[in-house]
Amino acid sequence: MYELFVTERAAAQHEHLLASAREAGVPVSPITDRAADGLSETVTPQGIVAVCALVDRPQETVLKPGAKLVVVLVDVADPGNAGTVIRVADAAGADAVVLAGDSVDPHNGKCVRAAAGSLFHPAITRIRDVDAALKACSAAGLRTIGAHGYADTELDQVSFDEPTAWVFGNEAHGLPPAVLETVDLAVKIPMYGRAESLNLATAAAICVYTNAMASRAAAT
């Protein structure tokens, strides 16, 4: 964090936060409510605005041998979905999240809010070339699994006894055929009711948590 701007009301409510910032040598500047409105993208800002470094890291520092669980988003356009999946990845103990292709910028305000703080926990990297992203996962020793509603293999048929990179596609179109041909395995979530599909964030939560719980059970 480089600098913190805070209104009088927010300063009174979050004295501990300001004290921690000052102890860390971060400048704290008072601002008016009007200024806070101008600095924030939300309708009702909380009165605290921080200037921080970008969170994404170079690919080579993120995708390297030793990673156990990675989440790859391909062409995911909705910042709320991307942020929610980053939060899911964090909760499941994933090592990294890769935003590949035309995926949304993780620094988008809605993505940051949807991640609810998890943007700062798993390593985040952006790779424009989807094929390069998948090859980097494979080079790091990760099995690539693509989530695909029409796959032959169902989630409960998969064993998670090796490091895995889950690959999720665009909200409307899913994974492109070229990606499905590249991944090591395509997997679908079985539908026991009458729903035709699940949204991206829900599907990611089911797949990633199934993987994480199975891996932890096998390790004990």
UniProtKB/TrEMBL annotation:
GO terms for biological process: methylation. The keyword Protein transport does not apply. CDD domains: SpoU-like_rRNA-MTase. It holds the Pfam family SpoU_sub_bind. One of its GO terms (molecular function) is methyltransferase activity. The keyword Ubl conjugation does not apply. Keywords: Methyltransferase, Transferase. SUPFAM superfamilies: alpha/beta knot (SSF75217), L30e-like (SSF55315). Residues 3-53 form the RNA 2-O ribose methyltransferase substrate binding domain. Residues 69-209 form the tRNA/rRNA methyltransferase SpoU type domain. Belongs to the class IV-like SAM-binding methyltransferase superfamily. RNA methyltransferase TrmH family. PANTHER family: RRNA METHYLTRANSFERASE 3 (PTHR43191), RRNA METHYLTRANSFERASE 3, MITOCHONDRIAL (PTHR43191:SF2). This is RNA methyltransferase.
